[in-house]
Amino acid sequence: MDSTMDYLEKDLEFFKTAAGETVFSQLAVIPEAHEKPNFSTITTAERLFKALFMYFDKILAQDSLASVTNDPQYKDSWELYKRLESTLYPWMYPYWQNAFHINNQTFNNDGSNSKGIVLCVGNAQFKFAASTIRSLREVLNCDLPIEIFYIRDDDLSAAKRSYLESEFSNVTLRKLEDYVGNYYTRFGGWAMKPFAMLASRFTELIMMDADVFFLQSPSTLFVDKGYQTTGSLFFYDRTLFPDWEKGPDWMRSFLPTMSTLVPNTRWFKGLSSHEQESGVVVIDKRKSLLGLLSTCKMNGITERDEVVYKHVHGDKETFWVGFEVMQTPYAFVKSFGAVIGGMGRGGDDGEPDQVCGVQLHLDPHDKPLWFNGGVYRNKHARPVEYLNFTHFSEGNDWEFNTHCIRDTDKIRELDPEQRKIALASVEIDKQRVNDEKLLDEGKWRPKNYDSHH
Length: 453
Description:
This protein is of the alpha+beta class. Helix content is about 40%, strand content about 15%. It has helices at about 10-15, 20-25, 40-60, 75-90, 100-105, 125-140, 160-165, 190-200, 225-230, 245-255, 265-270, 285-300, 300-310, 320-325, 415-440, 450, and strands spanning about 115-120, 145-150, 170-175, 205-210, 210-215, 230-235, 275-285, 340-345, 355-360, 370, 390-395, 400, 405, 410-415. A hairpin with a 4-residue loop joins strand 12 and strand 13. The radius of gyration is 23 Å and the shape is globular. The N and C termini lie far apart (about 60 Å).
C-alpha cells in the first residue's frame, strides 16, 4: 500500500529553479473561505509533504538535536517543509511548533508509549458519556486512562465537567480550542474527532463516540493483529443504500493512485453508500500520524463544508479516505455492522422473526464487542425505551426505518455474561438520569463532598 515518494537532493535543486518554484507555489496556498478547494492539489501537496516529513524524520532519528532550521545542508528543504505544513495544516499553530512536536508530547515520563481512550463530549452527549464511562470502570473493570475533549467553554457546562472529573478515576478534561486554532476549523460537532485524537496525550488511543457501549474490555483492540501490523483499526458500517456512485466518482477525481483495498470496498462495488463506521477508531500515532493529519485536513471548515460533507455523511469516511490520500496503511475488522437488541414486536417495531435494535460490531472471532446508539431502542424517541439485549444478528439486508435486519439465518442469542454486562449498563443509565436531574437543578454533590464541607 505504501508507495511513498522519496525526497532527494535533486528535488531541492528542481524547486530552486524558476519552474520548480512555480510548481511548488501552486501547492503552498490556502484556499479562500467558502470557495471550493481542489482536492487533487491537496493530494499532491500532502504526498509531497509526506516525502519531506519522512526525509526529516530519518535525519532527526539519527540525531535528535540536528539543527534542520539552520544547517546549510538542510535549511532550504526545511523551508519547503514549513511552507507546505503551514498551508496544509494552519490550525496546528501556535500550540505545536511543527508536526514532529505532536508525537513528542505523547510519551510517558519513562519513555514508554501511553495508551488510553478519548471521547468528544458536549452537553448533548453528556448523558451517554457519563453512563458508558461508568460501565467501562465499574462493569468491565477497564482502567485505561480517559481524556474527554470539549470544543469551547460553552460546549460542556462547568457542572457537567466537574461531575465527569470527580465521579471517575483517571479522567482528564481538555478544551480542544487550547490546542487547535479556531480560524480554519470552526468546530460544531463530528469534525472535532480526528483533531482531538491529534491533541490527545496518548500515543495509542481508542477514539469512541459518547453513545458507544462495550461488551468486552476495549483493551483487546490494542492486540488486534491488523492494528499491530498497520497502526490503525477501523470498523465497517451497515450495508445500506446501494448503487451509490457519488463517493467513488469523487475519489477517482482526486486520487491518482489508490491501495488495492479500494476496488474491493462496497463503495466501489456499488453495494453500499456507507463504508466506515467511525464510532470506534483505533490509532497508533507513531505509525499513523500522517494519515491522521490528512483526515484532519478533510474536516477543516472549508474542506468539509465546500466538498467533503457534500459527498459523505459527516466524518465517517474521512478516516480511510484520508489515509488513502496520504498512502498510510490501515486495517478494517472484517465483519459489517450487525444489530443487537431483541426480536421485533410487529408494526413500527419490526417483524417478530427479525432482530431489531442498535448497530453492533463484532470482534475478529464474531463475538459482540461494542454497539452504538446508547442502551435505547431509539435514542431520538421520547420517552426513551431501554433495549432488553436478548439477541443479535448479522446480515446485509437492513430495514432502515425500524432498524432491523431482515436476514434471519444468522440470528444468535446473546451470551448470558454479555447480556449481564449490557443490562448492568442499563441500570447505570437509570442512575445517571437521577444524577443529571440533580446537576440541572444545581443540587448534585460529589461523593466525598460532605467530608470536605
